[in-house]
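Handout for the seminar on molecular recognition.
Each group receives one record of this type.
Step one: identify the two inputs.
Step two: read the structure output and locate the region that could contact pyridoxal-5'-phosphate.
Step three: write two sentences on what you found, then compare them with the reference statements printed after the record.
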Amino acid sequence: MPITHADIVAARERLAGRLRHTPLAPSLSLSARCGVPVHLKLEHHQVTGSFKVRGATNAVLALSDDQKAKGIVGVSTGNHGRGLAHAAKEAGVRCIICMSSLVPANKVEGIEALGAEVRIVGASQDEAQDEVDRLVADEGLTMLPPFDHPDIIAGQGTLGLEMLADLPDLDTVLVPLSGGGLIAGIALAVKTARPSARVVGVSMERGAAMVESLRAGKPVFVQELATLADSLGGGIGLRNAHTFAMVRDLVDQTVTLTEDEIAAGIRHAYWREIEIVEGSGAVGLGALLADTVRPTGPTVVLLSGRNIDMTLHHRIVSGGRAHAYGDS
Ligand SMILES: *Cc1c(COP(=O)(O)O)cnc(C)c1O
């Protein structure tokens, strides 16, 4: 294992007082439906609206003084970008987020509002990545990736410690799954203390890179498709160094959901739990509602983020067309 339980405990010490220990709230409707106590981990109320700030903050605080003086760089326009921007600002570290000219203005403004410099380069993600590589090589900035990094995984693992602290007899944990940094950290934290607990990863059918890679026995390329769970899109990296092996070795089960099942999760969060959750954050709810996962004891459903376009959210909870885009 690239990281140990002690790394996650160390991350908890680093993050203490800087980020929220988010609440674990019982869901009366899901408990009644599933016949076991079901709790929601309200991580969408984390600073920046998602858990990604945990890993980002842990990684920034773990940098050497020299690395901190030079700054960090990343390419994400979504939750990882927000997490990096916030983490860097709090630590007084320069942060550059590179993006292509195709990125919509509201996303650029969102990152800038958190205090990061945005550098618009070229018309593709690849050109943005070239600029990242240049900043690393020529100016000595440190690139922090969204999931495949020991300090990022350890930071996300603090969620597992919080779940255990608040529900010591937990039996099943449902975790949204993309690159696997989130579930790898949680699985290591939870299974070290409670080997009998079951950790289940939930992805969307449309472009489940980790699920396909597990099936193939190695990291594989998977076509990225439009989905309501947009924060779960993207590959795991053909040269994946950490998360693939950890997910393979620690995670008990992975499942995938249709777009309608993800939409049902968003609707349930809103109408029954009074929570606004993005598609990627609602897949655990969707999996329980679709009976894709059947919990066998006290269960935690991780709501991982809330950064959804509110026009889209309004359409989904109003019962309109469930799909984010026209092609599914
Ligand atoms: C990034 C993200 C995930 C998935 O995390 P991985 O570490 O890539 O598996 C889940 N939910 C939300 C809201 C995210 O932003």
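Reference statements: Residues 132 and 236 are 18 Å apart (CA to CA). The chain has two domains: 5-50+153-317, 53-143.
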